[in-house]
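Why do we care about 3D structure at all? Because function follows from shape, and shape follows, mostly, from sequence. That is the central idea of this module. The next example makes it concrete: a single protein chain, its amino acid sequence, and then its structure expressed as tokens.
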Amino acid sequence: MKTNWNSGIDYGFSAVRSMMWILGLWPLQNGVIYTIQWLVIFTAVSLTMMNVLMESLKSCGVPRDGLEILRLTESCIHGWINIIFPRIYMRKLAININSAIDDWVSPFTKKELRVIMMAYARTGRLVTLTHFIIGSMGGILWFASVFLSNKDKVATIDNNTAWNFVLPSTCLYKGVSYSTYKALFVMQIIQGFLILISECACDSFFFSITMHLCGQLELLKVQFIEVCKKRNGEKHRGNIFRPLVKRHCQLIELTRNIEDAFNINILLRLLIISVVIAGSGIGIILSFNRHDYKELIKMVVSIQFYIVQTFLYTYAGDILQNRSESIVYAIYSSTWHEMPPIMVKDLIFIMMRMKIPLRISAGKFFYLARTTMTDILKTTLTYISFLQVTVEK
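And the structure:
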């Protein structure tokens, strides 16, 4: 485990590291203690998901809000997935983090190149904090709605006044004692906090580590431009391109690590988000017609949270592809026609390999780009139109 963090790596990853550490998922965490920590978190999140699923399947004559159950189920499933996949691929993600540390602590990186790295680190930090703030707003609204509704829906357990559970559990925990009720109530508050952290942490980690990779591609482009300005290619042919080609191979490997760790997670996430946004969209229409502005605000905030999560994936994938392709254009735009023929031959082979851009896929089905987000929103609007017509009939 590398601990030689400087201000640059700390600025880019400190917020993400704190959230991942809580879950026991920070890739540089090693040892039995961290494994036990992850097992405890995994058990708590799994119990939360089972609680929500079992409650939704039980029938005890209690009225339920279908959209509320849908959004809560989506959050639990997403949090559960985020707990599993980063743990499975922790070694590969550790390679990426160690590479980022080496990039920041390298004494050979010029000051102007560090400015480029800092710009991408700033983007990752800004989006991470924005994602966490919006997620926290959604969580606060959820707990607030539960506590406000409890004023009118109190129950009596062992001659003591009791509120409804934080998570839907009326049927599942029917008939429990008051002491058990208090323990379950506190446990569900903790479970809700863990779901919030798991939703924000892994998405933000994916975005931050991908942004750093984009910064390294930008640096590689600058280095290629500087090398192509040299005219004495014959003299330095043996090593003039070798370090850059080696670096590009390293970046390809780092991209594969991110792809392996997140592609299934991204696919499941985008599929579920499409359905939940569609359901929330029709819920907004119904809440507006009923003048239920409390539910309206909750759904608007939740939709914003889902859109931000979609933006994290699609924007990062699109920038990664663009920065990878820009190296080819930069080489072609150089004065290659003034270089020695043997140097031009090397450039041709380099460009042939770089014509295949670095990309992140969703379950190997499609690549992430900005058009992916627009396609998701178009599909969601189609669902909303269909559901609206169905409800009106």
